[in-house]
Amino acid sequence: MRPSRTSYPLSWRLMDAVEAVAAAVWPRSFSAAVPWLMLMPAVVLVGLLVLGLWDMADGSFRTLDTATFLPSDDYSLANYDRAFTEKLFFTVASRSLIGSLIVTVITLVFAFPYSYVMVRTRSAALRKFLLIALFLPFFIGQVVRAYGWLIILGSQGMVNEALGLVGVAPIRLLYNYPAVLFGLVQYMLPFAVLMLAPALTAIPEEMESAAGSLGANWVRTFIHVVLPLAKPGFIGAGLVVMTLSLTDFAIPAILGGGSQDFIANAIYDQFFRTSDQGMGATLALLLVAVGSIMVGVVFALFGAGTLAMGRSK
Amino acid sequence: MKGDRSKAVTLWGFVIAALVMLSAPTLVVLGASFTAGNMITFPPEGLSLKWYAAIAGATDLRDAFFRSAIVATICTAISIPTGTLAGIALAKYRVRFAAGVQIYLLLPFTVPLIGSGIGLMLIFGKWGLLGQLWPVGIACAVINLPFMIWAVTASAAGLDPDLELAAANCGAPPLSTFLAVTVPAVTPGIITGALLMFILALNEFLVSLLLVDARIVTLPVQIYNSIRSIITPDLAAISVVFIAVAAIAIALLDWLVGLDIFLKSK
Amino acid sequence: MTGPSKPFLNLGRRRFLQGVGLAGAAGLVGMPFGRAFAAEPEKPKEIIVRAWGGSWVDSLKKGVSDPFTEATGIAVRHDLTEDNEIQPKVWAAVAQKRVPPIHINWDTTTNATKSALRGVTEDLSDLSNLANVTELAKPVGLDGYPIVNTYGYVYVLAYRPSAFPDGAPKSWKDLLDPKLKGRIALYNDGIGFHFPAQVAGGGKLEDIPDNMQAAWDFIAKIKEQEPLLGEDPDFTAWFQKGEIDAACTISTNAREAKANGVDIAWTVPEEGAKYDTDGLWIPKGLPENELYWAKQYINFAITKDAQQVWLDGLGLPGVVPGVNPPADLVGDPSYPTTEADFKKLIRISSKVQVEHESEWFGKFKEIMQG
């Protein structure tokens, strides 16, 4: 048998063939379209949601006829009028807006040190431990987790019992606004840490030691070196936490004791309790609008352009 | 050094507080699953495995678990390429209307889950796709896609245009450059994102509830729908088994790929 | 813009026909196992019944589903999606001309009435066993039998005996006692509480729905007591963990909590308590043969034998004469049997309820969220 011509391995030849195909279907002149082609699958996937919203938008202009439980045939702005004038909707909307901002700030404050330690530690075991601790809570599920909190923070829970030992009367720690905010922070924490970690991973450790050797203490190093470099991570984590807590349903329902509803709870009520799908759709669309505006504001303030460090050089 | 000490104390203060927040209810529930009593309590009232025995024979739970695993696999398989390409596109290129695209791609988070669930139910219903598992997997990919995209963009600082240029200058064709230089640079983001997508899909409840029927219920739907008037320790036991299975899967992944590398700083 | 456009309608129809074909094939395969009479339509392999979880589905399985399977060879699968949450799924299926996800919905009469008004229910007037049921089985204010009511239940005042050393609370007004501040619970939307609140607030039941100011005034006073709002599992957990001392809840759930060792008792206060019914109905869009067997299931559920076992589990009075109450509920106010028992209870027609429910829920929420 003739030895193969060169030591050109099979995988290379395969790669060459793939490149040839790629070049044929995707000539260089298309290169301006490259980023759009890369975005296309994601745009299509999210497009499913847009189609759903489109269906719901139709319903939002129809009122519910409680004699037939069918949406009206004619269009009107009645649902939108209700959404803007009824006190209940104003209460829950402002509660969720303010709540989501507070939650975002507190979550980032806790997520940064956690992420930093997880990324920078020299112990692989510790890193894995910190990582697993992030994922564990998901498996308990919201309902059972809330029961766990009841055991710990309830009127006769572990914390109140401990307080009782030093003579403090039981305090209601659950079922109020702070409890909902606390619940959201601990629910959002894993997301924020995981969004921050890759950004921190990308910051070379030498940059920190360089700042240190130039006489900056660790606080100054953090403020002037680490935080600016981690900005894409902060924007990502902040947006995720803000939008998810703005639209969250489960935590206010479970830890709010029923009187701390967020917008999503009002939407749930319309869809599932009063069967008014048009009103539910109206509130959902308004929530999408508000959330998107907030995202836009974040971009305007902090700049979407700084997202990619590699590009802005 | 004094500075290092104050740094460590501050950081660890936050980390320990975060660990307590994350783990306290989980530990209580884990402990409660071994109770001999009929209530979830901590410390448990005597030790027994009776609640594990109670769920051992439940084939419906096992079937539901496998369905959840299928949904999570489909979701992850779809979101890895989709999210990675989108993430790199946003990080690497100057896309026109970038802010608009970002807002659009964040829709899964700005739409409340109930809205997503109802909307997807209407769309999939229209197309006659309900009653199967794969649309549920797609739905999970849609509602969590921003995690995948953002995990990739957040790690895009690792992207070095000089390195890509160098590869191109050495004659590497574009696809090779992409696979050999660009993708490895964002791998930490891809792995983080994929792990998150998988675990979230495994535990997804509200949207799945609207898309499944009784023949194809997933585990979270099965568990939470079975609660009507009382929460019994068998739910704690199910959580423990669920965690154990997931832990084995993660350990396996760690052994195969090595979870450690993707977070360690360079 | 207007709902499903024509091509999708056609697709829906085609799928519907496919569904019929498949179900027919399944029936053929199942034939040798059942006693197939020539007159009977082909048997499906299984039917799906929506039910509530926990002791609710357990008792339905024992009393109705298992005996039904034994008699017909048709397996019964239970879908445990909440009644509120299955509703949009069924409505969407009917609107899109799809085969609905369930064969039978075990539902509150109020929710079922909404579905009946919307026209998504099959008529059940031809069930043979309707000849033997009481007046309670017939839905009020609807034509025919779009729903068959199967039992009644009471929204009792459940309480922790140790918190009421002088005996059971006599009035809903007892909930205003300062020592109960932060220690009472109501359903999220206030269901079960609106009507007794109307009486407790000094109003008249005849004024429902036109003037319910008395109810809202009383509920505003209750709000000052900082009540917790939740659903059945919340109530049980709160009683278990000592968070609350009293709640307005369905007797069945209080009874199950008691059976699980929670210190709990219940009463019907002097103003009365809301009495309502649950029922069974079949969504439109099922293949003919499956519709037939779904009807047979409901027909069986209103036999005396089925009711005796099913309702023993729930602790609720049925719609067939001669069903015996479970031993622990003889003479209990949550198990009304006599004229005098019913006098203490408040029953408002489903039609009035469905027409005004969203308005009441909204008003209740507005007070509670403020």
Describe the structure.
The complex is a heterotrimer of chains A (313), B (266) and C (370). Helix content of chain A is 73%, strand content 1%. By secondary structure, chain A is mainly alpha-helical. In chain A, 50% of the residues are buried. Chain B has one domain (57-262): MetI-like (MetI-like fold, Orthogonal Bundle). Helices cover 73% and strands 0% of the residues of chain B. Chain B is globular. Chain C has 370 residues and is of the alpha/beta class. Residues 1-37 of chain C have low confidence and may be disordered. Classes of the chains: A mainly alpha (313), B mainly alpha (266), C alpha/beta (370). At the A-B interface, helix 1, helix 2, helix 4, helix 5 and helix 6 of A face helix 1, helix 3, helix 4, helix 5 and helix 6 of B.
Strand content of chain B: under 5%
Largest sheet of chain B: none
Broad structural category of chain B: mainly alpha
Strand content of chain A: under 5%
SS summary, helix count of chain A:
14
What is the highest CATH level, the class of chain B? Answer: Mainly Alpha
CATH topology of chain A: MetI-like fold
**Helical content class of chain B:** over 70%
Number of domains of chain B: 1
Q: Give the integer mean of the pLDDT values of chain A.
A: 88
- Name the shape of chain B in a single word: globular
In angstroms, what separates the terminal alpha carbons of chain A? 54 Å
Strand order, largest beta sheet of chain A: 1-2
The assigned structural class of chain A equals mainly alpha
Estimate the mean pLDDT confidence of chain B: 86
Per the CATH scheme, the topology name of chain B is: MetI-like fold
**Unreliable parts of chain A:** 305-313
Tell me the radius of gyration of chain B: 22 Å
Tell how many strands the DSSP assignment of chain B holds.
0
